[in-house]
Amino acid sequence: MTDLFDRVVLPVASPEDARATSRAARDYLTGSVVAVHVVEKAGGAPDKAGVEQREEYAEEIFDALEESLGEDRDVDTEIRYGTDVAETIFDAANDHNASAIVITPRGGSRWVRLLTGDVALDIVTQTDRPVVVLPDVSDEDVTDSGGEST
Question: The domain at 7-141 falls in which architecture?
Answer without folding.
Answer: 3-Layer(aba) Sandwich (3.40)
